[in-house]
Amino acid sequence: MADAAVPAFLRKQDLTTASPGLRFGLLYRGWVGRSWEKVNDGSAIRSVCKLAPGDAQLLHALRLRQREALRGTRPERETLVVHGVSTSPFVTGLGNEHPSENGFSFLNPYGLPYLPGSGVKGVLRQAARELAGLTRYEWTDSSLWNEAAIDVLFGHEAEHESGHRRGVLSFWDVLPEIAGGTLRVDVMTPHTNHYYQNGEPPHDSGTPVPIRFLTIPQASRFTFHVLCDERRLAEADGALSQNQLWKALLAEAFAHAFAWLGFGAKTSVGYGAMGTDHKAAEEALLEAKREEEGRAQAEREEEQSRQRAEARSIRTPAENAIDDYLETKKDPSLEGWIFLLQGIEGADPSLMAHKQEVMLFVKRLMQESKRWREEPGSKSKQKDHERTKLVMRLLSEL
Description:
This protein is α+β, with helices and mostly antiparallel strands. The chain has two domains: 54-191 and 208-276, no CATH class; 316-397, no CATH class. Helices cover 45% and strands 10% of the residues. Helix 5 (117-131) packs across helix 10 (245-261).
């Protein structure tokens, strides 16, 4: 066993601020030269489980980046987003080399757990084959899947009679939202070494050998992103492109994979089982609705701004100054002439530059609202009389 490729003093440091992938790899506490047997008690692998400070926020930011990249790459008709939640522990990358002899997939350079897009593609392809009746399993007789659709969407290898062809679908890596913010350690206990390694007759009374491995706990949330090259799809199979039939097929394949296949490793013993994350799907729909309303509001504001600019271009400078001043008031429609009078009395620069036009505009507004009173009247009308005299005096001074 090789020593860790880090200075010796690091082995005594608190490495919890490092990412889980770094603690599982370069900084793994099991890298202790040739004394591996002395530390294979589970403490080394348990030290990997807890996410480092900021890792949850980093995972969230990476998922947001995926979402925005998806929207910026293709129109909505060429994208499919499926939300899943794990109903059992999830594990992937067990075959990766590691001192514990059970690896795990961490996305570099972030050192965070992920499910590679290639793994997603493999599971969905198998789901499609089962639904199409191309395996020994008979699942349904009403599926629209067939061998031609599988070849177009997923592609096929060079051994195929028509040669190699790349599928029109692209599957992105999945970055899970880890329930509880920590990984878990599971243990498998094989007890047949006497049979596999020593050639003894098989029996069930062998000594169990605990083997620990990392898992992502159940109730973690997974978001699957799929892209479709619709131009190539239309050229290869117009029927799949029409009415976005490929989305319906993929939705069926996801449902089958969730219910029967699972994702990642050890699915045959129950790991990687998933169900539809209805809560996340509803949140995504609400978010899309809010964004659509935001875009519509922005378009309305842009149109209003255009109309306002067009209207300003045919108004006099005095009229524009009046509009600008009234826009600053909470309720310019309620006796707006009072606001204009206050602005003149306060020597507002925008109004003073067009004082005569503004005063004539105020006079007309007062007359239209029947507040122009040159003669004193009852006590309730005294304020209107005083404001009328003020306007008359200001006009006489011009």
